[in-house]
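Good morning,

Both structures are done.
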Amino acid sequence: MRDVIHDCFVDVLGTAPSEQQIDEVLKNLPSEINLLIEKDGEDNQKVRDNIYVWVNENINDFI
């Protein structure tokens, strides 16, 4: 998951996130994404896509 978050920051902002920013994103993932992670695993493409979309929509909360 850390890689997905990292890549999203780079795609959207053109810069890599700090470890603290990644930790904040992980703490704030919505429950539906966490449930999907539990169900399908973090390496599932659907999970990765959902994380990417959510981070992209909420990136301003983490910069």
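Second structure follows.
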Amino acid sequence: MVNITEQNTLDPMNYSLGESSKHFIIHQQDDLFIAHEYLFQTDIPSRFYHHQADTFLFIIRGELYLQQCTQQNSEQETALKQHQGIWLTAQTINSITLLTPAVELCLIRLKNTGQAELNNSFKKVSSGTVESISGRSHIKTWPLWHGEAGQIALELYPPQFKETLYYQKTATQYLLPLTGIAFISNDKKVPKACPRYGKIIAHKEPRAILNPSNESVTVLSVMTTKNTKGRILLLTKPEGRTL
């Protein structure tokens, strides 16, 4: 496995699915797996998934048609659009058909996602299907899924946004900008734009999200299990040293 430090400095591992289509492994650890797929109708008009573990499918761009067959041979189907997600439960056979020339999707697996938490799992979720809540520092959050294994959410960062430096005590986090450019600061270097394929932030790694633009930024946030008081603020002295 590639460690977190290496993944934040190197391009993701990838392999070809066709002439143009590719599968990128962004992160692969016991508690969290993140992969992106770039699919094109010209060489991958349809694709099958049969995972051994529950996998959350999120559409970054494009549209597709999904058919799912369970072990009891029951079939369900739905269409998924940009920024919608759905659970592909373990051992189900899933077939997707591209409805647009290109589709970019994200595959997410969290450790030990319990079946009891995935009741009525074949239900697409998005900012239009769940109630938004006001998060830290006035961030608007749509909780797409929350369970003992972690949480998946959409977060809206307002214009000219800057938060206090903090770290997660036990949780690993993945951030993927969906609209606009999000910047991440660790208080040691000039803030850097979050890569187009997202960024993995390890537990106890300082971070602060910034949006210096005049437009809101939407981010997909995935976080592994955390303690009740998992977010620790970092106070900074005038000379810049962190307490």
